[in-house]
């Protein structure tokens, strides 16, 4: 019987589609070994699996997808491939794939009709930030973000729970299956945890720490150094120049418009970096890439949930959004003339400033701001 059919159906759904109550108790209380057994029950008997990350994938999503494919081949005897939509744009992420020689393919190179088993990793059905065609359904869903109602229709949905990274969940599976990862997979998972928890300093659980320590002797430190310190293109520094030049400080919040970006995941990197400004509790960066408007939010105020906030703001505009406690992102298709696009940006920023409680603050240019 599919794992989701035996759950208590009494759940409360939030405005953004996530469940405001914890994941169904019977799933949350399963041991890693029991989860693994159910995962393999769903996978066995299939011929070929495609595991998809979220679009414009980060290291956590890529590492977890590659590890899941590795596990399916080793324990379910299913040939498995990994695909992604969007681009891999940040220098560290490019180095991540290149140095570790990760076997991932862009969806433009994939014939979906070749596969009879589909998985989503670090994302969930119906959220709009992955490239699984609407005509197909994911049988496997593994994600550390808050559980969404739509995920429960999947035969296997391990979503939410006490994890700071999806890579941690895959380490639990590998350990339960007694599968020793290759040095490349171990390094990928290690960096996935490291990056998503900001060196175990953000939304980290004991399971993340245990997984990190288990991977440490199995990963390659030289490869890790090449990933963390890649050469950077000139446009990287040009983008940061734009970010700092256009950044405005509203009391405890900082907001910047990056205009056109060369890679959508640079929006998240800038939002992350601006959180280091002294006295900042909120960081919001946004930029345009191929007629899509990307927003990235970072939050220090523990009273706010970044994922819920961004979903509440974007629910009236369409597009896709998601995240969790301290970090979240959204993507919105753009149309209309330049003046309409500028008005949309102003409207969205205004809604964020209201939520931050700084709408009445006089904006100050970052480059002219004085130290307190």
Automatic annotation (TrEMBL):
Annotated coiled-coil segments of the chain: none
Domain DDH: 49-193
GO molecular function: nucleic acid binding
Pfam families: DHH (PF01368), DHHA1 (PF02272)
Region listing for Disordered, in residue ranges: 1-26
Higher taxonomy: Bacteria, Pseudomonadati, Myxococcota, Myxococcia, Myxococcales
UniProt feature, compositional bias: Polar residues: 1-12
Domain DHHA1 as annotated: residue spans: 253-344
Name of this protein: DHH domain-containing protein
């Amino acid at each position: 019987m599919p794992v989701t059919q035996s759950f208590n159906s009494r759940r409360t759904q939030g405005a953004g589609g996530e469940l405001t109550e914890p994941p169904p108790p019977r799933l949350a209380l399963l041991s890693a070994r029991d989860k693994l057994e159910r995962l393999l029950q769903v996978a066995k008997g299939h011929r070929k699996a495609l595991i998809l990350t979220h679009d414009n994938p980060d290291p956590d999503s890529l590492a977890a997808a590659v590890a899941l494919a590795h596990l399916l081949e080793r324990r379910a005897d299913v040939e498995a491939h990994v695909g992604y939509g969007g681009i891999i744009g940040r220098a560290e992420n490019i180095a991540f794939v290149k140095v570790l020689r990760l076997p991932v393919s862009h969806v433009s190179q994939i014939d979906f009709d070749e596969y009879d088993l589909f998985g989503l990793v670090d994302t969930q059905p119906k959220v709009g930030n992955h490239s699984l065609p609407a005509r197909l359904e994911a049988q496997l869903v593994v994600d550390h973000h808050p559980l969404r109602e739509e995920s429960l229709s999947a035969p296997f949905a391990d979503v939410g729970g006490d994890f700071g990274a999806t890579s941690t969940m895959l380490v639990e599976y590998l350990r339960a299956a007694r599968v020793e990862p290759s040095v490349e997979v171990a390094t990928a998972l290690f960096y996935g945890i490291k990056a998503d928890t900001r060196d175990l300093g953000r939304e980290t659980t004991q399971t993340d720490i245990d997984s990190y320590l288990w991977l440490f002797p199995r990963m390659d430190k030289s490869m890790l150094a090449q990933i963390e310190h890649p050469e950077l293109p000139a446009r990287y520094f040009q983008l940061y120049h734009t970010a700092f030049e256009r950044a405005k400080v509203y009391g405890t919040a900082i907001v910047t418009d990056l205009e056109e970006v060369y890679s959508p995941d640079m929006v998240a990197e800038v939002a992350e970096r601006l959180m280091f400004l002294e006295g900042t509790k909120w960081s919001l960066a946004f930029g345009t890439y191929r007629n899509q408007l990307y927003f990235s939010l970072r939050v220090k105020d523990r009273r706010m949930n970044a994922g819920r906030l961004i979903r509440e703001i974007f629910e009236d505009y369409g597009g896709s959004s998601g995240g969790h406690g301290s970090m979240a992102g959204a993507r919105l298709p753009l149309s209309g003339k330049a003046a309409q696009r500028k008005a949309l940006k102003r409207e969205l920023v205004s809604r964020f400033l209201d939520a931050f409680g700084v709408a009445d603050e006089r904006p100050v240019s970052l480059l002219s701001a004085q130290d307190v």
